[in-house]
Design goal:
Strand content: 25-35%
Protein name: Glycerophosphocholine phosphodiesterase
CATH class of the largest domain: Alpha Beta
InterPro entries: C2_GPCPD1, Carb-bd-like_fold, CBM20, GDPD, GP_PDE_dom, Ig-like_fold, PLC-like_Pdiesterase_TIM-brl
Family: Belongs to the glycerophosphoryl diester phosphodiesterase family.
Strand order of the largest sheet: 25-26-31-32-33-34-35-36
Distance between the termini: 55 Å
Radius of gyration: 27 Å
Largest sheet: 8 strands, parallel, barrel
Number of domains: 3
CATH topology of the largest domain: TIM Barrel
Pfam families: C2_GDE1 (PF25329), CBM_20 (PF00686), GDPD (PF03009)
Keywords: Hydrolase
Length: about 650
């Protein structure tokens, strides 16, 4: 019997999204579509009618699943093949599908079917691409606060326009303005051959303080920036960061003359260049001179973040399924157990917090998700624990354990076996943590800690500091994980939560590697108080959604230096601007002003709430039934979880 063949046609239009350097691709469940590997996807071609089209011939296929994505090519140098960069992809939970045996006519299927990119089943779901290539970096520049400073008052203006343009320093067309002494024949610039394709993408801007904070193309003369008020994010992709620089252009609006009725183009006030030597780390703040006619007239301050590809072992990231824009609507809010069955160190809880037993206890009592914090040990193992530091009693050394395996001499002072020391979790190896009798640092409320009720901690399910891998293996698969990625931040009072921490990319990579390797079918949602960590998680993987944890204004918590954390409304604009799933609000702040929840819903964001106020059923009901939030994180009171 001869196998039946089918020709499947693809045709799609792309409203509003496509640039002239971008292409449309389709990937799917057949080898001719790459088996969900975007690097092996089928590229479509644009026809005269403006549709992107192509076709494949299949044999004996019952159902073909597929989804579209947009991409373009960057090239690090002329000796290497171009790298595919995914700019946007269809993020519906379930991909498109076709059944050739049912839908074909004379062996031809979808001949006159035209799709609209991002629209499927009457829903629009489009997500930004993730970092697909080892050499690819996503670079984010931050311009905020009193970013512009001029040396003479005549250059001070009520508003400016800022535009940032990436440069490849090997390309004479990019760098001629930097080197005014370059020879006319361009010999110096030609020492390094520039690639055929560009090595960077055009820069997009997310003006977080504007009504529409979403990333978009820059205008010819930049976006209006008010010194001391606005917060702008600029992003670009690069596959050759060692040659990457930026030209920063500052414009001011020109006033029309007396005899002019037409609008006058803004005039260039100053230019600055940020070269690789200026951006030496993967994260930091810097300033560069603003010049006019070669003379310095001021400076611009900005922050920068280089997000690298996921550099630790992990399964191949495919496009068969993605939850980054998915949240199932339900008749009731999700119930999330904070630290499992609640905070056991400064409040009463029947079970020690952040243990396997506590996480399973919350699941048994009906929690939809359990929330916990993840750190790295000194030997870079992701573990579950809440605080950055521990107050420990140094236990007696076992004669079978070498002293160097327990605590280094410079980590603790010599003393009696029951002497206490404050240690950073990051400075202790996993085995060292397992050997410590742990107690929490006394919280500001002065509650004492009772360690006697934790004598059973050595049991695998009871002991503190379980690894993230153990949680995936030992906690009921029926409960989802809300994984808070705990990264220390600088507070407005000048105190840093934990200095000299891991480099951000490395830190996130170890955690993501564990999650992508061991999560299997478990429901996962990430969260963090650090907005840059949220951004990095969303850029390094395409499977799981991210929530931004917000402290809000006028709460009992010390605010952070990062402006995006100051108010709930700023949090909403950051999440909407960067394309995250939603915001995890602080209940204390929302009880004063609930309007940020309304604005979040107008942006289509998912809303969670956390905080001590949720222990009061009256407040919990208000958030669930009044504000209709999608999830509540309880600090305790697990008897309230639905069963």
């Amino acid at each position: 019997m001869v196998a039946q063949q089918f020709t499947v046609h693809f045709s799609v239009t792309v409203p509003n999204y496509l640039h002239d350097y971008e292409y449309v691709f389709v990937t799917g469940s057949d080898s001719q579509l790459g088996l969900w590997d975007p690097k092996l996807a089928l590229r479509l071609e644009k026809n005269e009618e403006g549709y992107w089209v192509n076709s494949v011939t299949l044999t004996s296929v019952n159902t073909l699943n597929f989804r579209y994505f947009l991409g373009y090519y960057l090239e690090s140098d002329a000796t290497k093949p171009p790298s595919l960069i995914i700019s946007k992809f269809e993020a519906h939970l379930r991909p498109r599908f076709v059944i050739p045996t049912v839908e074909s006519r004379d062996g031809v299927c979808r001949l006159r079917v035209n799709n609209i990119f991002g629209t499927y089943g009457e829903r629009v779901r489009v997500a930004d691409g993730w970092i697909l290539n080892d050499e690819q970096n996503s670079i984010i520049l931050t311009v905020t606060g009193e970013a512009l400073k001029f040396y003479k008052q005549r250059n001070d203006h009520p508003a400016y326009r800022i535009k940032i343009v990436p440069l490849d320093l090997r390309n004479r067309n990019d760098s001629f303005m930097i080197d005014d002494n370059a020879d006319d024949d361009g010999a110096a610039a030609d020492e390094l051959d520039p690639p055929i394709f560009p090595s960077y993408s055009p820069t997009e801007i997310a003006p977080l303080t504007h009504a529409n904070p979403r990333y978009r193309d820059q205008t010819d003369f930049g976006e209006t920036f008010h010194n001391g008020k606005d917060y702008f994010l600029f992003r670009t992709q690069s596959v050759a960061v060692e040659y990457l620089g930026f030209r920063i252009e500052v414009y001011v609006d020109s006033k029309p003359g007396n005899n002019q009725s037409k609008l006058v183009e803004p005039r260039l006030l100053a230019t600055a260049f940020a070269l690789p030597s200026t951006l030496q780390d993967t994260y930091g703040k810097t300033s560069v001179p603003l010049t006019k006619r070669g003379l310095p007239i001021g400076k611009i301050n900005f922050g920068y973040l280089f997000v690298r590809s996921l550099g630790k072992p992990h399964p191949l990231q495919k496009m068969d399924i993605s939850y980054v824009k998915h949240w199932k609507k339900r008749s009731r809010a999700f119930e999330v157990g904070h630290r499992g069955m609640g905070n056991s160190y400064t409040k009463f809880a029947a079970t020690r917090e952040n243990t396997i037993h506590s996480l399973n206890g919350a699941a048994k009592n009906g929690a939809d998700f359990v929330e916990f914090d993840v750190h790295l040990t000194k030997d870079k193992i992701p573990i579950i624990f809440h605080d950055f530091h521990v107050l420990v009693n140094v236990a007696k050394r076992s004669p079978t354990i070498n002293g160097n395996q327990f605590l280094d001499s410079n980590e603790i002072s010599k003393g009696s076996s029951d002497s206490s020391h404050v240690l950073a979790v990051k400075d202790l190896k996993q085995q060292q943590l397992r050997l410590l009798h742990k107690m929490m640092i006394k919280e500001s409320n002065g509650l004492n800690v009772d360690n006697d009720r934790y004598d059973d901690y050595l049991h695998e399910y009871m002991r503190p500091f379980p690894t993230l891998e153990e949680a995936f293996r030992l906690v009921s698969p029926d409960v989802g994980f809300n994984i808070e990625v705990k990264y220390p931040m600088l507070q407005l009072d000048g105190e840093h939560e934990c200095e000299n921490y891991f480099e951000r990319n490395e830190f996130v990579d170890f955690i993501l590697s564990d999650v992508l390797t061991h999560a299997e079918d478990r429901r996962i949602v990430f969260s963090s108080f650090d907005p840059d960590i949220c951004t990095m998680i969303s850029l390094k993987q395409n499977k799981y959604p991210v929530l931004f944890l917000c402290v809000g204004a006028n709460t009992k918590h010390v605010p952070f230096v990062d402006e995006r954390t100051w108010t709930s409304l700023k949090a909403v604009h950051f999440v909407a601007g960067t394309g995250l799933l939603g915001v995890n609000f602080h209940s204390e702040d929302l009880l004063v002003d609930p309007s940020p929840v309304i604005e979040a819903k107008q942006f289509g964001l998912v809303t969670f709430v956390w905080g001590d106020e949720l222990c009061d059923m009256k407040h919990a009901d208000y958030f669930k039934k009044g504000l209709l939030v999608e999830g509540l994180i309880y600090d305790s009171n697990v008897d309230r979880f639905p069963t």
